[in-house]
Design a protein that fits this description.
Chain lengths: 177, 173
């Protein structure tokens, strides 16, 4: 089904605003189940592609879907649908919470929620760790990344510039051979 | 003007390496924003990330809160554009230049090579956030308990965040 520009905008607006916590489940519902802009297979392929490219997964999905139906205009409209409302929301909420009156409540509440968010991120990492089939080389690479960032606080670009080409090259040799 | 340029210089390069989204570059955002530039305190940084998580939408929006802190509305807009534009242009160029077939092999190789780094970075994000957010025994415990609960159940993260907020309001964290 071919969406119009307006439909692209409202489609991604709806995905953005329903996506508490996990936007991707809502993306599947919005793009495949409800609107049939993508087939199951197309969704899976675009998602895999989105995950290996830099940038948020849902943002890359919006780029692919927008481009596919309306080219550059589609990309701009889909991204606007996805980003503008949450952008305004987060700034307004920040303004409200740090304003006089509410700050005395919001500060302790945020202080209590922050350790939970840290746990949430750790759990996501541990789930990925659990699901991945580790070779000794991969494990060494993962640990090296973790230690250089957390312990030595090295710049990410430096760490990636060394480790990413190395591990990709080794993975490539293995796939080829 | 200089601050807007600095925001671009922090976020635009990270945009191109943010495989997996905001979480993988969070430690480096923290390093530059808190340690190098001193734009935010540890607590403000942790709070901004919590707020970006609590609001629906991509959690990369945390960078707009950083931009807001540095240079108001212009800063917020510049930060989110700098963080999104380079990766978006790359995705667009790739989508146009290559068909899915030619990408398939590279996708396997890249995924196999990059996955361990992404997982390492995700765990690093969790630890950096914990270092920013956990200053008491209770808050450290809260991080550990949250992690354990989420590994074992499918409880909605927002419920746990609300629980943490209640503990915070009760003055326990």
């Amino acid at each position: 089904m071919q969406p119009s520009l307006v439909q692209l905008f409202t489609g991604f607006l709806e995905i953005a605003l329903s996506g508490f916590g996990g936007v991707l489940a809502w993306a599947h519902r919005g793009l495949v189940e409800r609107r049939a802009w993508l087939s199951e297979r197309e969704f899976a392929e675009l998602l895999a592609l989105s995950q290996m490219l830099p940038g948020g997964n849902i943002i890359n999905m919006a780029v692919f879907v927008g481009n596919r139906f309306h080219g550059l205009r589609g990309v701009v409209v889909a991204l606007a649908g996805l980003m503008v409302a949450p952008f305004c929301l987060v700034l307004v909420l920040h303004g409200l919470l740090s304003g006089p009156g509410l700050a005395q409540f919001s500060q302790p509440a945020l202080r209590g929620a922050a350790p939970v968010v840290a746990g949430l991120t750790l759990a996501t990492g541990l789930k990925m760790l659990r699901a991945y089939r580790w070779t000794p080389r991969d494990a060494a690479c993962g640990v090296l990344t973790l230690v250089s960032i957390v312990v030595f606080q090295l710049p990410l670009l430096l760490v990636l510039a060394v480790l990413a080409p190395l591990n990709v090259a080794l993975a490539r040799r293995k796939t080829a051979g | 003007m200089l601050q807007l340029l600095e925001l671009v210089l922090v976020f635009a390069p990270l945009s191109l390496v943010a495989v997996g989204g905001a979480n993988t570059v969070l430690p480096d955002i923290h390093r530059q924003v808190v340690l190098t530039h001193g734009w935010m305190s540890e607590t403000d940084f942790a709070n901004a990330f919590v707020l970006a998580q609590a609001v629906p939408g991509p959690n990369i929006l945390v960078v707009s809160l950083i931009g807001w802190q540095v240079a108001g509305l212009a800063g917020a807009i510049i930060a989110i554009v700098a963080m999104c534009a380079p990766s978006t242009i790359l995705a667009l160029l790739l989508a146009r230049a290559l068909g899915n077939l030619r990408l398939a092999r590279w996708r396997r190789v890249l995924q196999a090579g990059l996955a361990p780094l992404t997982i390492g970075l995700m765990l690093a994000s969790g630890l950096v956030l914990a270092r920013s957010a956990d200053h008491t025994v209770v808050s450290v415990g809260l991080t550990i308990i949250t992690t354990a609960i989420l590994l074992r159940t499918k409880l909605h993260p927002l419920l746990l965040m609300a629980g943490g907020a209640v503990l915070g309001l009760a003055g326990l964290t």
